[in-house]
Amino acid sequence: MKSLFLGKMIKEQENGFVKSILQTTNVLLWVVVLATLGFLANLLLKISTYGFDIGLKSTINTFEMLLSPLFSPLFWTSSPRTTLYYFIINLFVFYLMFGFSFGVRNVLLRAFCLVLVTIIMIGWYFVYILSNASI
Q1: Rg (the chain; Cα; Å)
Q2: Among 40-44, 69-73, 129-133, the least confident range
Q3: Least buried of 5, 23, 42, 51, by fewest C-beta within 10 Å?
Q4: CB neighbours (10 Å) of residue 69?
């Protein structure tokens, strides 16, 4: 099955830099679509189980908890701050790291870079969530 979003454009590109940016955008779009579907499924499950008011409040609290690390610094501090500036910086770092990984010609090195960056980002994300949960 061909990619839903940018598959044809990615295959047609010859420039490595543009191709890596398109691949990174494709990954980001898939993450957004899958996260949206997950939140909708969570909302429907909570509404069918607990009713509309409690289900909606619970889903909004879950959404806030999972969205707040995107607007926080990439390093953990004792007083987490959330601003739009950190969201732009985090998105830039995401594009830079994944774009570099997609631009590497060696397949094994590309896979290693993608897995390493993914593990680091997931680790930072869950450290932020767990630090807020323990406070």
Answers
A1: 18
A2: 129-133
A3: 51
A4: 22
